[in-house]
Amino acid sequence: VNRNSESQQIQNSSGFKSPAIARDHEKQPINSKYLVQRNSSIVKEKNTTLVSVKVSERDRLRHLEKLAPPDAPGEFGNPVQIDRRKLSPEQQKRYDELFKRNSFNQYASDMISVHRRLPDIRNPSCKQETYPENLPSTSIIICFHNEAWSVLLRTVHSILNRSPLHLIHEILLVDDFSDLEFLKTELDEYLAENGKGKVRVVRTPKREGLIRARLLGYGEATGEILTFLDSHIECFPGWLEPLLARVAENHTRVVAPVIDMISDRSLACGGNEIGNLGTFEIANMGFNWLTLNKTEKAKHGQSEPWKTPTIAGGLFSMNRAYFTKMGTYDHGMDIWGGENLEISFRVWMCGGSLEIHPCSHVAHLFRSMSPYKWGKSFRDILRKNAVRTAEVWMDEYKHIYYERLNYDLGDFGDVTDRKDLRNRLGCKSFGWYLKTMLPDMKLPETALYSGEVRNMEKGMCLDTMGTTAGNKFQAIPCHHQGGNQFFRFTVNGHIERDSACLTDQDGSLLYVLCKRNVTKWEYTQEKEIRVQNTDKCLTLSSRTLSVLPCNNGLNQKWTWTRKINK
Ligand code: UD2
Ligand code: MN
């Protein structure tokens, strides 16, 4: 009853209403075994007495378990558009709760078959590729924390339905300490019946985060190749063979599919790829996508994999023995984030390669915010994982990131064994990696000193006062908080922050864009800030800054918060 009125609200792109799949469900009796065992209360709803409150998740969503007719909601990746205003108050409540719990529209997902079909979006030239019969098989590792039933199972069935079964050695689902009851009580039984004998669930004894959860799955895996996937993905036809073929050909390749988007509102899944290459930003250690223009794309060809500086992290195949040899993942990383850059740097610097295969497409449900609890603060965890990566892999470039943290690195634990790993593997430098993989990346000049610039006479500090480039410059009392009082003295003699520099203009101190012919300074033994090869020094009188003949006075002596030791 309930479900039918919900389904009235659906309208997919073909204008289709009241989907057959939902009607079909009405005919299907709810398994009485479950009702007796699990339902305790009787509720009244719309003049009908229903025994329903604690229907098991599996029973509630049993209508999803089969291949739906082609015009059912979401089939072929079509969007499921729900007009929330037309739902009943109870339905609205559930719609909102489910959205909040997942950061995506579970209400819509629960209307789509877990076996939904997807179009074949491969480039025609990919369809002509042939692959060896005897490709090695793969262990697929998917970790999850409180994933929605319909989304998790659609992930699993999209793999089972669209991969040659002999290439799947096993699917390992790693439950990272979910507290949703049905994931603990109903999942194993469902998969025993519907997993084609391939799926196994393993569980972490406490919340570990995705890095250690994946490592637990790795410890259980016995396939020749490992394939990591997120728990809210759908595989397109032909996704697996290209990945396995590339790894089989050369075991040092780490190969990722093209990642397409699943809409967090309508669950539409039609093949719009999110980006072409992975890069990152040192100053915040964030992953970014790069989009190639048409010419660059054409250069790569239609079915040839291309090299990528970094991977997004969630989806890739890698030879299992090579994963072991290369030091798996950093076990000291918590919950989420950073492991993708860590493995990217490591693979390139230690002799392997990362690539994206244009013939392999997997869709991923991107959410605008993280739905689960992080325990500690979000910022602390991201910082810890990023600092561990920077400490081990980034050599002197780590300072670019650390400066932004104001050298407040937090407790990042012990990284000795990761440094040992780097030595053992004889890896190249981070400078080599940047030069080779990201030659166009804009980097700030290396700093020799950074922090606040404090006058020794009056304890005043250089301060931008929020001014923009092109203005005169001031000093005010030091506040020790970085911010507007944060500067860098670079190897090239520039005093800069972001893209602005301090320059001497006829005795006045100006703040200008670094591009122009700015002053080169020298920080002397006597703690003067001198214009290079002159006798002129940065001078403070009252709050005014000027550049005057050096006189060895305290008002011409300055200290920096830190000297950067490489
Ligand atoms: C991206 C990656 C993700 C991971 C992350 C950085 C893609 C498509 N996704 O963010 O795989 O590399 O960047 O760390 O490239 N999970 C747990 N326990 C936790 C938290 C998460 O098991 O404590 C699971 C989660 O259910 C999911 C996977 O780990 O299956 C990745 O988490 P996510 O989906 O929140 O990460 P995402 O896609 O935002
Ligand atoms: Mn994800």
TrEMBL record:
Transmembrane segments: none annotated. The keyword Disulfide bond applies. GO terms for molecular function: carbohydrate binding; polypeptide N-acetylgalactosaminyltransferase activity. Pathway: Protein modification; protein glycosylation. One of its GO terms (biological process) is protein O-linked glycosylation. Residues 450-561 form the Ricin B lectin domain. One of its GO terms (cellular component) is Golgi membrane. Keywords: Disulfide bond, Glycoprotein, Glycosyltransferase, Golgi apparatus, Lectin, Manganese, Membrane, Signal-anchor, Transferase, Transmembrane, Transmembrane helix. The keyword rRNA-binding does not apply. It is a single-pass type II membrane protein. Its EC number is 2.4.1.-. It comes from the Eukaryota. It is found in: Golgi apparatus membrane. Its cofactor is Mn(2+). Belongs to the glycosyltransferase 2 family. GalNAc-T subfamily. This is Polypeptide N-acetylgalactosaminyltransferase. It comes from Magallana gigas (Pacific oyster). The chain holds residues 126 to 691 of 698 of the full protein.
